[in-house]
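Record Helix-turn-helix transcriptional regulator, 267 aa.
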Amino acid sequence: MAIPLEGMMQSSFGLALKSMRADLGLSQLGLAEALGSTQRHISFLETGRSRPSPSFVIRLATDLSLSLLQRAALFDAAGMQNPYRRRDFGTAELTELLDSLERRVLRHWPFAGFVLDEDWTVLRANAAGHALFAMFGGETANTRASLFEVMFSPAFRENVLNWDDVSMMFYFRLQAAAIQAPKLAALLDRERAAGTFAHVPERIAEGGEGGPVLPIVFRGPGGVPLRMTSMSAHLGSVREAAIEGLEIELMIPVDENSEAMLLAAGQ
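=>
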């Protein structure tokens, strides 16, 4: 028996609403209270017994802390005109944006710099960034390399002198990023299963003191340690779901010796 188009839209919206609610960690009652609605109304929407009104979908988009991608999914599932877009990075407009970030930001940064998508795929890198990847067997020139894969590669780990401490920092940063990035969440689960982060609870229990920033200490030329940290930035006034998760990652030396060595090496 054919399913009416209206029923398909309702079912699609119900699934989208239930998925969004799960992402937010809300019960039906919790979502209802946040929106000034009722649990019965939320249940009817999720099961397809009721169809969402435009005003309800707009309240979801404005009253809850949703990503652009989540908002776009709700508008699409409700069959409403979608004010948000999610295009491929291969489109001319997004390619122009990435080229602009490389030309106006990365090229002026004297150390390694990258533009990453929400999955930590390297979309653009400056010359120092390419050189840094090459140190660990990574390639960014002809492929979209994964910063995640490089960070957890044997070559990278073997050259980080304070791996146990740095990996704990990576773990919590990845945990936060994975909430909005299913692919990153899967990679994080893979490393958890492999025991990469088994030491984290013990390191937390040990406590310890340190400076305000935990540097990554690399084994540099001649065995001299290089101490670096990073700074990330996001674009403001974003209207495109595809670029909502973009990060500009800039590596920063934390002492003068590291700065001098990196500048001399062009990294």
